[in-house]
Amino acid sequence: MENFSLILAIVVVTALAFDFTNGFHDTANAMATTISTGALKPKVAVAMSAVLNLVGAFLSVEVANTISKGLVDETGIRPEVIFAALVGAILWNLLTWLVGLPSSSSHALMGGLIGATIASAGMGAVHGDALVTKVLIPAIAAPIVAGVAAMLATRLSYSLGKKADGKAAAKGYRTGQIASAGLVSLAHGTNDAQKTMGIITLALVAGGVVAPDSDPPTWVILSAGLAIALGTYLGGWRIIRTMGKGLTDLQPQQGFAAQTSAATVILASSHLGFSLSTTHSVSGSVMGAGLGRKGGVVRWSTATRMFVAWGLTLPAAALVGALAESVTDLGDWGTAVVAVFLVASSAAIWKISRREVVDASNVNHTDEPAGVVTTAIAAVTPPPTGTVTETLTATIPAPPATTEPAAPPAAV
Fold it and tell me: Where are its TM segments located (predicted)?
């Protein structure tokens, strides 16, 4: 550990700060639907998610190895490059949290790493095949697969539950939703916590502390798991509100289907080493569950803003990472300038967020408009059975009364 320099220590601390933002940014992925349907109280939900995130961090290192060994050429990376990458990822996480948009922390991290690496070592230092096969393709496929699975599971749940007792079925679905939410939290730990493990391991390789191609040391796994668990416990209430109430209104059957579908996709990708966005998976499953219920709708105005944020995540974080790398390349004073900018920007974003506080007490309250598609569907929905007569009576006035014509006088 004698090679553990000051810049390397700064990188490790910054990486754990990113992991903390990842935790509260992505709490919604595991617990938004559980909170919105009332299956768990908000604070109980985030505490449960925090514990399971920590447990999940110890279950696998496949995703960590994808970040530390597969995405960029680790032999040509300096610790300053990784620091610049983390700056881009943290600032994007905080900005999207401020506006309540569930963007991908994973893609923010990888975008920052790619931008900083290109600025430092050129395009050749980025492994394009790994970027396409293990990042970009899963980013597109995950929400589609999770969405279709959740839609089909929702329809199956309603179909099988037609003859079930209403109260008993609702209780059963709430219990299943709690279990599936726990599974999503566990899956989140196996996927997202590992990204920080991978970035710290990459920094240790760049600083000469560990040998190339090494797995994450135990202290890295533990610290990353604790950081993401702490962030999860504090709760990203703004994004929980958007995910739980802003996209669609969920019933327990839909919440159970959405969580189960997302957990299956995330765990499968972790096993294969895909650096998957849990945000994309859960968002896709929530929209699929919304469309799976008869009469259910999705607020496409919110979904559109979310899609735009997804598309901007990689390039925006890459741009900030590249700019930060250009400044750190000027020397130690350049690194200090970037560090001060990061702290000042983070403090400013937090101060702005205090103007409208979202916490456990008001997380389920939203004024999000229904949107054009939802309004149109509601306008053409037929009236309920038994109200047709009353509706017609109220809207179509009866014809005016007419008097019978007088009989003609008798002929003389």
Answer: 6-24, 44-61, 81-101, 108-126, 132-153, 218-240, 307-324, 330-350
Token pair, residue 292, equals 């799976």
Taking only the tens place, the pLDDT of each residue in 102-149 is: 788 878 888 898 899 899 888 888 888 878 887 788 788 888 888 898
d(CA 357, CA 399): 57
Q: Using the 8-state DSSP alphabet, how is residue 397 labeled?
A: P
- Residue pair 58/225 in contact by the 8 Å Cβ criterion: yes
- Contact by Cβ (8 Å): 150, 292: yes
Give the other-Cβ count within 10 Å of 259's Cβ.
33
DSSP-derived letter for residue 244 is: I
Residue partners of 42: CB distance under 8 A and separation at least 6: 31, 35, 235, 237, 240, 360, 363
Angle (deg, nearest 10), helices 332-353 and 79-98:
10
pTM exceeds 0.85, yes or no: no
Q: Which of 14, 47, 197 is nearest to 116 (CA)?
A: 14
306 alpha-carbon distance from chain centroid: 10
Q: pLDDT of 349-406, one tens digit each?
A: 999 988 888 777 776 665 544 444 344 434 444 444 444 344 444 444 555 555 555 5
H helical segments located in 209-299: 218-234, 237-241, 252-272, 278-292
Q: DSSP 3-state assignment of 126?
A: strand
Q: Which of 71, 82, 79, 135 is nearest to 321 (CA)?
A: 82
Residues 6+ apart with CB under 8 A from 124: 73
Using DSSP's 3-state secondary structure scheme, residue 72 falls into strand
- Give ∠ CA 296-279-365 in degrees, rounded to 5: 50
